[in-house]
């Protein structure tokens, strides 16, 4: 089980790095989807054999939503909006990667020192979650493209979720489902909004830096 | 009638009258009468209440339950409140009488200076609220109630100013007033909350019991000075006054200028009763404030052509005189010179009373002029004393009184302040003499300037020939307006006679401000007031002499040839009114002299060639505190704020970055 | 009862999506609002003397919840009455489908806000608060203009990011409750707060403050607020500002409640006071010289949330003052946003410089614009005066003299900044182009506004004993 | 306490009788310097008598204010006289602060004169009135300050007390200060009484006048009252100046003649000044008065040492 767990965590870290270093939107979306699937599998890494039905359902829903529905939605948006496939960064890709590595180091350092109660199943868990949260925030801040911001938000959520899974916090099934529903609707509404924006404003091309008419 | 009933009447009747007047607002006359009846009855109740407490001594206390909330509102009339209740009641009542006719006739009057656009019912409502607010301010006995009443009063005045909002200058005036009063209130809130925290309670009894460290005392004094000073109109916090008074209907200007700004003085005195023994520097500060307010008020007043602005600046000057008295009095108290303290404070208080009366007359008179001629511009008036004898006579009384000339009431209070300063000369040494010299020199200069200012006003507006057609066609003011004006003028005369006699009656009023016991205080007042008998005697002598000389003159001229001619104009054959001296010319020498402290702009026509085209010259008197202090301050702040606006850049990325940074900072702050 | 309260708006809201007949939609809106208010009023004082409970204690109407729910419900009622007239008027040109989405989202928005007030499970609370964002997003882009879309986009992303952090905080709280088996039920956490792991609780608190603070609009997390409030229709701005912000604050308060029970002393007080003052200062910067009156109101909301934060940070009288201020602010700001809606409809502009003479053109609106401004900024008689006074008093009482002074100074600056536009807009002569159109104000547009004003005016001199009692209980509950 | 000193009636009587004489002396002195014969020193009395015997002419513009001006003005100065001691003997009435009343009575006189001038609606009289109030406002502070300094030095608060306290002792201990104050008072004396270098009582061009131009329209008994009032004012302020110089505490039979003599000397001095100086340009007059103020301020500093 630990093997699987650590493997999944490494996968998540790698997807993060991939997103930091890539210039193609498609890569982002796929990496995000992969991360979502990996996250879903995390549910199955708990001790004590096969999990309860509720958790299985949760994992399946997560997998479907994050690994299937979201990428579809995003790809559709890109196609219909005729967005350029390049993400235009504020921070260059090499720099992003270097910052990512530094963040990973920092996350590992902090993760090792957090006075966590109870048994931690892997030393990688907390750093991974923190790193993922950081990556999410970084993607939102350092990229121009509006789609990346949706993705950044997703990655951020993944990070938070990793924490949840990692620490076996006992939120109940209903709440977890509620959270998932919220995230699903959230992304859905974001995409719809982007869609509308694209239709309303001709030359926007999902460049969120051009969405700055409202200011003081 | 019991005190409780009187208190309730004084507070509620004006408001009820105003509300009822608003309800019957569809009928202008009825609305005006109803509102005025409330004001007059409330004023009478207040007068009875204040008079009773001052005459018979003691206190009137009544507790009003605050519905079912468990809070009680304690209202009490102690001698200090009672004293301030007198001018408030008299002036508001007479102004209400005046208002009935004033508002009625200004309906549909000429645009511009008249208040044609405003609904009398609204004026009545807010005038009633203003009166209620002022009485409440004087009567409440706890900090919360005080702040509440204070704001009520301020807001009522704001609405009166803002009612005629068709003109940009009036809106600007309303804004200035609102801002000034709000800033003042902020200081008051600071004052009361800080003091209340130290005292462990918010009732005045609690506050009066507190002992304070020197530092706290100093801080509180400054807060009270700023808070109450903004209302009273201490320079440089006076800037709202000259804007607000022209914007309000004249009888409300009279109330605002005559008594509302005095609540600032009341508040300051009340605050002093909480703060304990005054250090000498308070006296210094007040004397300096009074000195600057008095002189600058007059300097600015001289430059005005707008009659009501001029009167507003004159209020600043009179507040300066009041403050001079208070300052020299406090200085006396602080340095142990009791006579000086008693005289200064007594003079200050009496000047409050006197100023309410004569400034009331002057504003009501100004209202009569404005209503009759449709202009507030002095240089467009002239020769009105023939056409409005009632207004002219009352105005003259007010003008003589406000210049502090004997034998009217203004002299009595200024005399006491002078006397306090002179007493200070006897007891002090070195620098301790300086406040006295400041007061004496200040009052002397103020007196001279005031004489210049009010000979100008009376001479230009009422004497000579009418300068415009409107001024030439005015009719006499309606009876109720004349009643209001002459009532106040009569009050000025009566006070001149009465004040020297009843001066010892001020003892209970002054008692909380002085560290001496009642009998000593009474003795001091009796002793210090003795010279007033000389003043009274000479006043009587003066009147006798006037009578005698008039008689002699009459006898001499009887049976002799008394001719009538045009005014001597060096033989020029066709004089017109346009040739007569205008107010602007009259005050020009003084204005030129004070140019450096008073900004303003002059438009001069460029006259070129041998036969230049007709040109106009116009002067726009400014206020150096507006031009050099407040405008730069406010625009500076605005510019600074504009520079900080990059925060809201419109970029989503930056916004999310804010979130991340805030998180990091807060984590760092809270966990390390 | 609680279930009804919750389900009614949700169900009717979902149904509304399917309705295409405009009068029915409007009827549904009005009916739900009235029913919701009725239920809320009946719940005052609880069911049979006890606090109403449902779902095994996941939902419970405690004092704080009652207060915030009442505000929400009342404001929604006013907004609904106004909204019906709004839907009949300006939006008549929109297709029925748009109205269906509008009404549906509005009702679901109400449902989610109700859930926020009721939720005793902090995970559920998170779900509810995030749901308010999602339900309100389509409301903001009702006009489907490029500006409103941009506002919606920013609203969504910023609030979602912020709230994601609150979720992290919720997880941390669960870790802190390790010895309580990670429970997230408020009652359990408060009851056995001594067993919580303090460091995690602290981190959770900070995450809650930042997360929900984004939603509340505390500077510098407020960035979405002026955009969203200014672009949304009046009804929505009114609810966002008057109801949503308070409810989001409830999220922070719940954790403060736990912190208080866990005996963390003055922990977090400084944070709240600092953020509060920063919010007030930020608001002041943007209020002075503001050119858009809806943005002005939005920044004023930032300021008032700052007042709340300062009050809660100070504790004691400050807590009562802040709770009371929440009531006053909601009534006052709600009324101003609705009034702004009338002005916008009459003048077709949001630029302060182009609006003059409201008092002459739209008498009721003009009067309320002025009165509302005075009431909101704390010129008595207005409840806001008392509540701000309480907060200031709390500062001095706590010995935080500097905080008190800065607080008063900032209030004054904001007042000065707001006074000019309000006076300028109310007075003067309306522009000729506007006057020619002869805009009308219907009674339905002025009545709810006037009633809101009457409320905040009355609270300035008479606080009903029931409300006083509720405020005291809520303050006690929140560890004031 | 209000002190009544019946001996003080004598100076009043002296003033009433002799005041116009000072005017005559000044004119006589000027004539002497101009090398003219000049009018007799009694000429002012003749003028008064003749005016009193005349009828009057009034401008149609004027109101009762115009008539009241001279009457109230003369009454004011007469009332003020009761407060002014002469030669160190107390005034008829004396009380603390009576100097304020006296100066304010002069103010009242000016007030009514100015109003009477404005009542005519003439631009010339308006101009004169304007100058009058301007210079008066500037003249007030030096007089008040002078008296305040003296009050502080002598420890008395009434005019009688102050002037009684000024004697050789004070001149010895604070001579320079007293000299400065006397000079300042003399300057104000010149200004207040419309003498050269501030005003030229003998000019015939209205544009250059101050006091004279204000009373252009008065005639007959009214004008007589004005002239008489002006003489009394000259006497009154002269007494003040003289009071600073003459030693106090002399018996009455020495003091009064000495004072009258000193007043005549003062008149001669005034005449000398008028003969040797030119009238200042109008806009220099404020500087003249501010000069007087600066002298009092210097005296204040000297006295404070």
Account of the 3D structure:
The complex is a heterotetramer of chains A (216), B (672), C (480) and D (305). Chain A is an all-alpha fold. Chain A has one domain (2-208). Chain A has seven helices and no strands. Chain A has helices at residues 2-21, 25-42, 53-81, 93-113, 125-142, 146-166, 173-200. In chain A, helix 2 (25-42) packs parallel to helix 6 (146-166). The longest helix of chain A is centred in the N-terminal third of the chain and has 29 residues, at 53-81. Chain C is built from 20 helices and two strands. The two termini of chain C are 29 Å apart. In chain C, a hairpin with a 4-residue loop joins strand 1 and strand 2 (59-60). Chain C is mainly α and 480 residues long. Chain D has a two-stranded antiparallel ribbon with strand order 1-3. In chain D, helix 3 (64-81) packs antiparallel against helix 4 (98-119), helix 5 packs antiparallel against helix 8 and helix 8 (175-192) runs antiparallel to helix 10. Chains B and D meet through helix 17, helix 18, helix 22, strand 3 and helix 23 of B and strand 2, helix 3, helix 4, helix 5 and helix 10 of D. Strand 3 of chain B pairs parallel with strand 2 of chain D.
């Amino acid at each position: 089980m630990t093997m699987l767990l650590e493997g999944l965590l490494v996968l998540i870290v790698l997807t993060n790095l991939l997103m930091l270093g890539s210039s193609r939107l498609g890569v982002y979306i796929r990496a995000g989807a992969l991360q979502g699937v990996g996250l879903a599998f995390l549910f199955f890494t708990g001790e004590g054999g096969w999990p309860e039905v509720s958790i299985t359902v949760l994992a399946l829903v997560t997998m479907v939503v994050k690994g299937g529905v979201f990428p579809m939605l995003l790809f559709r948006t890109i196609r219909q909006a005729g967005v350029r496939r390049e993400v235009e960064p504020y921070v260059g890709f090499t720099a992003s990667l270097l910052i990512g590595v530094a963040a990973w180091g920092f996350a590992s350092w902090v993760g090792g020192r957090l006075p966590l109660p109870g048994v931690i199943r892997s030393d990688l868990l907390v750093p991974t979650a923190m790193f993922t949260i950081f990556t999410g925030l970084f993607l939102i801040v350092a990229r121009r493209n509006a789609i990346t911001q949706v993705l950044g938000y997703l990655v951020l959520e993944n990070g938070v979720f990793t924490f949840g899974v990692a620490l076996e916090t006992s939120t109940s099934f209903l709440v977890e489902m509620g959270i998932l529903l919220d995230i699903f609707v959230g992304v859905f509404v974001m995409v719809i909004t982007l869609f509308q924006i694209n239709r309303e404003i001709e030359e926007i091309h999902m460049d969120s830096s051009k969405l700055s008419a409202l200011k003081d | 009638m019991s005190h409780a009933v009187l208190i309730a009447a004084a507070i509620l009747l004006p408001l009820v009258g105003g509300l009822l007047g608003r309800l019957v607002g569809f009928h202008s006359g009825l609305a005006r009468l109803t509102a005025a009846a409330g004001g007059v009855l409330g004023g009478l109740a207040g007068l009875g209440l204040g008079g009773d407490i001052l005459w018979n001594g003691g206190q009137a206390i009544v507790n009003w339950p605050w519905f079912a909330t468990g809070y009680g509102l304690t209202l009490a009339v102690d001698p200090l409140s009672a004293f301030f209740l007198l001018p408030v009641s008299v002036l508001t009542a007479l102004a209400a009488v005046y208002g009935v006719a004033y508002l009625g006739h200004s309906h549909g009057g000429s645009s511009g200076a008249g208040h044609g656009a405003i609904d009398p019912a609204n004026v009545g409502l807010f005038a009633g609220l203003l009166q209620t607010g002022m009485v409440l301010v004087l009567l409440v006995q706890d900090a919360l109630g005080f702040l509440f009443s204070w704001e009520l009063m301020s807001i009522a005045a704001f609405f009166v100013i803002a009612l005629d909002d068709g003109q940009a200058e009036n809106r600007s005036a309303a804004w200035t007033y609102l801002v000034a009063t709000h800033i003042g209130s902020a200081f008051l809130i600071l004052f009361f909350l800080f003091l209340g925290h130290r005292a462990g309670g918010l009732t005045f009894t609690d506050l009066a019991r507190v002992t304070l460290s020197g530092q706290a005392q100093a801080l509180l004094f400054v807060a009270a000075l700023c808070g109450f000073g903004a209302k009273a109109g201490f320079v440089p916090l006076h800037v709202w006054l000259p804007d607000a008074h022209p914007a309000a209907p004249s009888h409300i200007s009279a109330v605002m200028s005559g008594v509302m700004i005095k609540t600032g003085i009341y508040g300051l005195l009340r605050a002093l009763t909480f703060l304990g023994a005054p250090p000498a520097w308070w006296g210094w500060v007040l004397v300096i404030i009074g000195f600057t307010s008095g002189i600058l008020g007059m300097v600015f007043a001289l430059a005005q052509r707008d009659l009501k602005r001029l009167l507003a600046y004159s209020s600043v000057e009179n507040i300066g005189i009041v403050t001079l008295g208070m300052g020299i009095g406090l200085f006396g108290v602080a340095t142990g010179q009791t006579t000086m303290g008693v005289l200064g404070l007594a003079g200050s208080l009496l000047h409050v009373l006197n100023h309410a009366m004569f400034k009331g007359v002057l504003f009501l008179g100004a209202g009569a002029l404005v209503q009759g001629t449709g202009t507030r511009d002095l240089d467009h008036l002239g020769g009105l004393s023939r056409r409005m004898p009632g207004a002219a006579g009352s105005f003259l009384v007010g003008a003589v009184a406000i210049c502090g000339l004997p034998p009217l009431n203004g002299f009595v209070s200024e005399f006491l302040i002078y006397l306090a300063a002179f007493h200070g000369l006897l007891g002090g040494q070195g620098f301790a003499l300086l406040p006295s010299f400041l007061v004496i020199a200040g009052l002397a200069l103020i007196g001279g300037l005031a004489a210049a200012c009010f000979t100008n006003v009376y001479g230009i507006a009422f004497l000579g020939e009418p300068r415009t057609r409107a001024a030439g066609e005015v009719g006499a003011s309606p009876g109720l307006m004349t009643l209001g004006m002459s009532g106040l003028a009569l009050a000025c005369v009566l006070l001149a006679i009465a004040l020297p006699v009843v001066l010892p009656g001020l003892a209970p009023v002054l008692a909380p401000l002085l560290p001496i016991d009642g009998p000593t205080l009474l003795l001091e007042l009796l002793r210090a007031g003795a010279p007033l008998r000389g003043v009274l005697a000479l006043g009587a002598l003066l009147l006798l002499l006037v009578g005698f000389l008039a008689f002699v003159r009459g006898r001499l001229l009887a049976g002799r040839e008394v001719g009538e001619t045009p005014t001597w104009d060096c033989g020029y054959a066709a004089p017109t009114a346009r040739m007569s001296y205008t107010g602007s010319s009259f005050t020009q020498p003084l204005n030129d002299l004070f140019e450096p402290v008073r900004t303003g702009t002059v438009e001069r026509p460029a006259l070129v060639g041998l036969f230049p085209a007709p040109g106009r010259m116009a002067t726009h008197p400014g206020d150096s505190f507006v031009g050099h202090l407040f405008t730069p301050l406010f625009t500076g702040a605005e510019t600074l704020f504009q520079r900080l606006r990059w925060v809201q850049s419109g970029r989503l990325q930056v916004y999310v970055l804010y979130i991340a940074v805030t998180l990091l900072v807060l984590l760092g702050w809270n966990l390390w | 009862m609680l279930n009804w309260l919750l389900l009614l708006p949700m169900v009717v809201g979902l149904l509304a999506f399917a309705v295409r007949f405009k009068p029915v939609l409007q009827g549904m809106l009005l009916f739900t609002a009235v029913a919701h208010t009725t239920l809320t009023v009946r719940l005052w004082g609880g069911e049979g003397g006890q606090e109403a409970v449902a779902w095994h204690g996941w939902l419970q109407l405690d004092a704080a919840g009652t207060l915030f729910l009442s505000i929400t419900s009342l404001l929604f009622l006013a907004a609904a009455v106004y909204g019906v007239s709004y839907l009949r008027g300006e939006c008549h040109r929109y297709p029925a489908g748009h109205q269906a989405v509008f009404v549906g989202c509005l009702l679901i928005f109400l449902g989610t806000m109700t859930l926020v007030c009721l939720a005793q499970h902090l995970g559920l609370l998170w779900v509810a608060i995030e749901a308010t964002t999602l339900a309100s997003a389509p409301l903001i882009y009702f006009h489907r203009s490029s500006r409103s879309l941009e506002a919606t986009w920013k609203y969504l992303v910023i609030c979602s990011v912020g709230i994601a952090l609150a979720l992290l905080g919720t997880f941390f709280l669960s870790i802190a409750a390790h010895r309580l088996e990670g429970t997230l039920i408020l009652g359990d956490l408060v009851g056995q707060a001594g067993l919580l792991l303090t460091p995690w609780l602290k981190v959770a608190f900070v995450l809650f403050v930042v997360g929900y603070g984004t939603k509340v609009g505390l500077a510098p997390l407020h960035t979405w607020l002026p955009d969203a409030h200014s672009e949304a229709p009046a009804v929505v701005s009114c609810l966002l500002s008057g109801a949503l912000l308070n409810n989001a604050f409830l999220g922070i308060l719940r954790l403060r409640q736990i912190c208080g029970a866990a005996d963390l002393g003055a922990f977090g007080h400084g944070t709240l006071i600092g953020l509060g003052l920063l919010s007030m200062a930020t608001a002041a910067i943007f209020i002075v010289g503001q050119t858009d009156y809806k943005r002005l109101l939005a920044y004023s909301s930032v300021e008032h949330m700052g007042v709340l934060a300062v009050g809660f940070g100070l504790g004691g009288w400050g807590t009562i003052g802040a709770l009371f201020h929440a009531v006053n602010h909601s009534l006052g700001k709600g009324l101003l946003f609705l009034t702004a809606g009338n002005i916008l409809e009459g003048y077709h502009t949001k630029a302060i410089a182009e609006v003059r003479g409201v008092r002459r053109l739209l008498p009721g609106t003009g009067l309320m614009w002025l009165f509302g401004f005075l009431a909101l900024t704390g010129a008595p008689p207005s409840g806001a005066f008392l509540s701000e006074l309480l907060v200031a008093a709390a500062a001095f009482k706590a010995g935080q003299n500097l905080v008190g002074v800065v607080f008063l100074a900032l209030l004054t600056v904001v007042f000065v900044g707001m006074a000019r536009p309000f006076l300028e807009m109310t007075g003067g002569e309306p522009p000729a182009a506007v006057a020619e159109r002869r805009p009308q104000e219907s009674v339905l547009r002025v009545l709810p506004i006037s009633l809101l004003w009457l409320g905040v005016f009355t609270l300035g001199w008479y606080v009903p004993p029931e409300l006083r009692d509720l405020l005291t209980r809520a303050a006690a509950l929140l560890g004031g | 306490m209000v002190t009544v000193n019946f001996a003080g009636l004598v100076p009043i009587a002296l003033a009433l009788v002799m005041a116009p004489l000072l005017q005559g002396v000044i004119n006589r002195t000027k004539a002497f310097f101009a090398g003219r014969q000049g009018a007799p020193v009694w000429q002012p009395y003749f003028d008064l008598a003749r005016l009193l015997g005349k009828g009057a002419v009034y401008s149609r513009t004027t109101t009762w204010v115009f008539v009241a001006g001279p009457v109230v003005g003369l009454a004011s100065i007469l009332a003020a006289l009761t407060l002014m001691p002469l030669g160190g003997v107390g005034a008829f009435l004396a009380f603390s602060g009576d100097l304020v009343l006296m100066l304010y009575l002069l103010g009242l006189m000016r007030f009514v004169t100015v109003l009477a001038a404005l009542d005519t609606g003439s631009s010339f009289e308006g101009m004169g009135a304007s100058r009058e109030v301007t210079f008066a406002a500037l003249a007030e502070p030096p007089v008040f300050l002078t008296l305040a300094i003296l009050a502080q030095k002598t420890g008395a608060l009434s005019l009688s007390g102050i002037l009684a306290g000024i004697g050789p002792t004070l001149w010895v201990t604070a001579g320079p200060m007293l000299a400065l104050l006397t000079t300042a008072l003399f300057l104000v004396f010149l200004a207040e009484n419309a003498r050269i270098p501030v005003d030229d009582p003998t000019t015939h061009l209205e544009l250059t006048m101050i006091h004279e131009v204000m009373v252009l329209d008065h005639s007959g008994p009214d004008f007589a009252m004005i002239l008489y009032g002006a003489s009394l004012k000259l006497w009154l302020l002269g007494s003040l100046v003289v009071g600073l110089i003459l030693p106090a505490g002399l018996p009455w039979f020495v003091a009064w003649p000495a004072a009258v003599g000193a007043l005549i000397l003062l008149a001669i001095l005034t005449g000398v000044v008028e003969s040797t100086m030119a009238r200042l340009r109008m806009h220099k007059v404020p500087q003249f008065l501010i000069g007087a103020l600066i002298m009092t301020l210097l005296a204040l500093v000297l006295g404070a040492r």
